[in-house]
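Sample pair:
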Amino acid sequence: MNKSPTKGDTPAQLIDARIKELGDWRGDMLSRLRILIRQADPKIVEEWKWNVPVWSREGLICTGESYKNSVKLTFAHGASLDDPSGLFNSSLEGGVRRAIDFHDGDKVNATALKALVRSASKLNASKLK
């Protein structure tokens, strides 16, 4: 994204701009993923860090990066999360992070993704106790 954050830009506006800027299946995918993340836990906060969308609640949950051939959700503590549906398909060798790469035409398992987001949120909350 070429636009630098300005004083008046909220994280939501920057995420909206990223989605619009992508203008193809990646923007559509990022938009769908954003909706699912927010549905999974309405108390999740949208942020803009490292020039990418970030979703947090009591700590970082995941980032939403866009690449030429994929949209990647990287879960900050993904290695600590149960993934019974096998959504994680990237960064599997890491000791902390795990990611899901979405490609053009991929279907999103909304139920499993929401469960993963809720699990990440609960993990963050448990670290505060």
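The chain has one domain: 11-128.
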